[in-house]
Every structure is written in structure tokens, then in C-alpha cells.
Amino acid sequence: HVQLVESGGGLVQVGGSLRLSCIATGFPSGFPFSTAAMNWRRQRPGKLLEWVAAIDSSGDTTSYADSVKGRFTISRDNTKNTLYLQLNSLKIEDTAMYYCTPGVYWGQGTQVTVS
């Protein structure tokens, strides 16, 4: 079965950086990770889940929420079945649980706290 394991979160000061990773396993042979468009989503304290960034299967096309555009970068390495999110110039309001997902499957998330 599909498993998504996020890591790389932590406590960081305003203006700092983090790199989140998401390792994907168990994708069906007919639908491997390399064929899946992927997303990062986050849930801030007391807020609804929100979309952060997306990347197509090849990594050639990316898109971002306005709130993170210019600060976050989504990327992937299909040889390692891994999705990344580089977080720069972090703000207090970036504090959230971050999840990687192709839309159907979800990981357990990784907590980012900006102070």
C-alpha cells in the first residue's frame, strides 16, 4: 500500500529556512511515483487545510499559493521517489503541519514551527 513519510520539519526562527522531504513507497507498478503529480498542503493552528504547492510528474511544472510564492520551492527526485519543499524566509504564519499528497494518499505530516 502507498506510504508517504514526511520529514525535515522543526523549530526555526523568523527568516530561517527548512527543507522538507517526503519519501513515497508502495505506489502500484502501473502507477509509479514518477507518474504522479504531487502536492504539499498544510494545516495551520485553528485553520482549515490549505494547498501550498504542486508539481507535475516530471518536475517541469510547478505552482504555488500566493502566500508562499517566491519563498518556497517544490521539487522532486523520481529516482529516489522523493518530494521536497524548500522553505525560505519563513514567517510566523508558516507555522503548520505540512503534508505531501497526490490527492488520495496522505502522510502523517511534519511540523514546522516558526518563532
Your description of this structure?
It contains no helices and 10 strands. It is globular, with a radius of gyration of 13 Å. It has 115 residues and is an all-beta fold. 0% of the residues lie in helices and 48% in strands.
Helix content: under 10%
Unreliable stretches covering 5 or more consecutive residues: none
Structural class: mainly beta
- Output the number of helix runs: 0
Order of helices and strands: EEEEEEEEEE
User: Between the first and last Cα atoms, what is the distance in angstroms?
Assistant: 37 Å
Residue share in β-strands: over 45%
* Rg: 13 Å
In one word, what is the shape?
Answer: globular
Q: Please tally the β strands and state the result.
A: 10
Largest sheet geometry: 6 strands, mixed
Mean pLDDT: 97
Strand order of the largest sheet: 2-10-9-4-5-6
Descriptors:
mainly beta, 48% strand, globular, six-stranded mixed sheet
What's the short version?
The chain has 115 residues and is an all-beta fold.
Write the layout of secondary structure elements.
Layout (H helix, E strand, L loop, with lengths): L2 E5 L2 E3 L5 E8 L12 E6 L5 E7 L6 E3 L7 E6 L4 E6 L8 E6 L8 E5 L1
Parallel strand pairs: 2-10
Antiparallel strand pairs: 1-3, 3-8, 4-5, 4-9, 5-6, 7-8, 9-10
